Amino acid sequence: DPVIIQHGCSLRWGIMQKGSLASASLAEHFFLSEYSTLSKGARLIDSFISEISTFSCGVMISAFCGPFHEQHHNNTFLIAAALEGQSNMAAGVCLGSNHNTRSADGEILIHRGFWPGLMTSMKYNSRLASFCLITGGQFQYELDISLPFSLISQNSEELQIRPAYWQQYNLYALGRNSWKYSKRDKKGQWDFPMETYWLAPDTVEEITQGIKLLNQWINQGTYDAEKKELIVNNHNLEKSNRPLRIFKPKEALSIFETLLDYYLAITLINYQETEHSEDWTWLNREYIDRLSKKKKESWKYLGGSMISQSQLDEMIKDIESSNINSWQDIHIRYSKWHKEYPELKLIHALYIKDEDILKRLKNALQWEKELLAQTKTSRLKDIDSAFRQITFHTPQESEELLPDLPNDPFLNDLELLSKNSTVKIKELIEIFETE
0.70 exceeded by the pTM? Predict the structure, then answer.
């Protein structure tokens, strides 16, 4: 397959897949997946870069980066790191060092959607849930953060977490990330379903765990109603004796509960659009009851795809017993999973929460309205701030350079999608109200 190798490259013992590009970089014992880029003096050693990713400038050793990984600045990944993808690495990030332990046997696992701030340094062994944003600075203790969509920060006395940070403060960035991945996808048709939306079976599993933890901590900790802050011991989220401060835990809890309802609504809509005709004649209580008898799966995000735990266990067993003994066999298995995914995802959405479907759909309709409004509001912060105006000489200059919301392609697409979803959710509500 065609690839591009430009000036200044030193490439040894590697594989470059279709559409990949290497420019002015060094790579040894490497794998560069389809439509990924290695450029601007990057050093890639003993590492794997997944599809539609960009790695520039920095040093990466013994790392696995999942699809849509973005790394454009000077960073260092010094020993084993596994990032699930959809990440964006700020300048100066240092993930780990082999001086952390007595030998080079440390590892870090970061689920998809990771955004570290400038000059972030983390200690091995650590693990972060999906879509965590970690502020710049040195985190001197190992972390095991199980709350997704969180902003993680600290001071000398305490670890600090703002769960559901993206949904409360920056829905524009969260939504635009999912949107831009599909726009950058040069291949389009994959042998397996690439899941890029931020609300999917893997993040929903983490949300349900987050709900349990927040309920538990609210009952155990010291809650300041005026500041909307909770102080609790860190429950092994960090390898230290520092307390944990959680900002707006009750607000995050409410958002997480609503997201489970919204997940049901969008999954029903997607299932109709991909598996059925435009009407809802297939959907009734009998159909729901039939699905309820099927197995409810837990899910993993595996190289861009959602794989149920039982599917993964079965494949590993078949590889060990030589029932699967080639990559072609694995691709055939993925194709089979692709066909099964829509219904298994629907079962997951229906039964992730034990509550009346009609009530859940009404909650989802309300969130659909808030989603569009809050996404626009979070983008307006970039325009309305007085500090954004201080470097312009005239109002005309700022109008030319600052974002133009009516012509923002992401917001325009989101508005159309929201209108369609609103109509569909209302139709679903009518169905279950008449039964």
Answer: yes
